[in-house]
UniProtKB/TrEMBL annotation:
Annotated family: Belongs to the Maf family. YhdE subfamily.
Function, in words: Nucleoside triphosphate pyrophosphatase that hydrolyzes dTTP and UTP. May have a dual role in cell division arrest and in preventing the incorporation of modified nucleotides into cellular nucleic acids.
One Pfam family per UniProt: Maf
Single GO cellular component term: cytoplasm
Subcellular location: Cytoplasm
Main location: cytoplasm
Protein name in the entry: dTTP/UTP pyrophosphatase
EC number from the UniProt entry: 3.6.1.9
Residues with site note (Important for substrate specificity): R10, T74, Q157
Reactions catalysed, as given in the entry: UTP + H2O = UMP + diphosphate + H(+); dTTP + H2O = dTMP + diphosphate + H(+)
Lineage, top ranks: Bacteria, Bacillati, Bacillota, Clostridia, Eubacteriales
Amino acid sequence: MLVLASSSPRRATLLREGGYPFAVVKASVTEELPEGILPATGVRQLAIRKAEAGLTHWLELGGDSQDVVLGADTMVVLDAQILGKPATLVEAETMLTRLSGRTHVVLTGVALISGSGRLKADVVETVVQFRQLGSDEIQAYVAGGEPMDKAGAYGIQGEAGKFVASIQGSLTNVIGLPMEYLSEQLKAWGIEQTNIASREVDDGLSTFEGFTGGTPTP
Ligand SMILES: Cc1cn([C@H]2C[C@H](O)[C@@H](COP(=O)(O)OP(=O)(O)OP(=O)(O)O)O2)c(=O)[nH]c1=O
């Protein structure tokens, strides 16, 4: 059985839409990383941290050691700097001003772990280009509340979809789980889709120029 170690509603929605039956378990971890760590190393570490915490909790709840626990972490990287979730509205505005007219990278670390000691963790990268944003539209977007629980202060699946000029790589990777990569991995772990649900998110972004699907990076 598949267990999602996450409190992100987006990750649960993506797995459900992917047709996977799963349980959800909380994975409260500190998201602090050592100063100067490479973003890809950091995002992978956090995904493992979440999966390990989730596994511990799941086994305490009486879960089977053969169950497969999934942890993930998403970060936005601009000029080699990590943009996490904004702590304040002002910080959200600053992040979006920095992203305006620029190309950035979204990294999602994905970790699969089981009680038998098996572990697989990778990082999937999507390149996102924003068009030039006006300060009025940034302010209006931040006032709408969408940025606050999201890396880089935006949600590509929401109103910020209109900020995006192009995307290269997996769209679902930006939203929190690279489903193309993940379904390959889950197959290798013996986890199959049982039903293919229709997409709940009407984003219209999969037709964007350069959409190629996710590519794992070492
Ligand atoms: C860039 C971007 C991020 N996000 C979200 C995905 C993640 O939920 C969030 C980044 O925070 P994460 O720390 O990756 O995840 P989380 O705290 O929401 O959930 P958990 O740790 O319990 O699994 O930003 C979007 O929903 N859309 C976007 O376009």
